[in-house]
Write a structure and sequence with these properties.
There is one protein chain. By secondary structure, this protein is mostly helical. Helices cover about 60% and strands about 0% of the residues. The protein contains 5 helices and no strands.
Length: about 120
């Protein structure tokens, strides 16, 4: 994702985290990231909590429009906030390497299921 005024390069660390910690460790780290950004009273990431805590992730230079765009991109239920599942799905969607790997793992699982159903 790019900032509107300044081009921001995001380093995709999720594949490295998954490689080092495994799938469960990656999910744990995503949950930690969610808790870091969420509004503690509401239990979701709101625009205000994202703006307030974005500097913890080095995103303090993003404009309000950029932060709002990030929030809305992952807001599947349309409530204006990100719950933990929406946040995790968004993080996977923003990680091309993990998306490719997820697609590969899904294809493998489907092939295995087809083999098992023909026995």
């Amino acid at each position: 994702m790019a900032a509107s005024k300044n081009q921001v390069e995001f380093q995709d660390y999720l594949p490295l985290i998954e490689e080092k910690l495994g799938g469960d460790g990656l999910i744990g780290e995503l949950c930690n990231g969610f808790r870091l950004l969420m509004d503690a009273d509401k239990g979701v990431i709101t625009f205000d909590s994202l703006k307030k805590n974005s500097s913890l992730l080095g995103l303090q230079d993003l404009s309000d429009d950029d932060l709002l765009s990030m929030l809305l991109e992952g807001d599947y239920d349309g409530d204006g906030a990100l719950n933990q599942m929406e946040f995790c799905v968004l993080m996977f969607r923003l990680s091309p390497d993990l998306m490719d790997q997820s697609e590969f793992l899904l294809e493998e699982a489907l092939e295995q299921e087809l083999k098992n159903s023909h026995r």
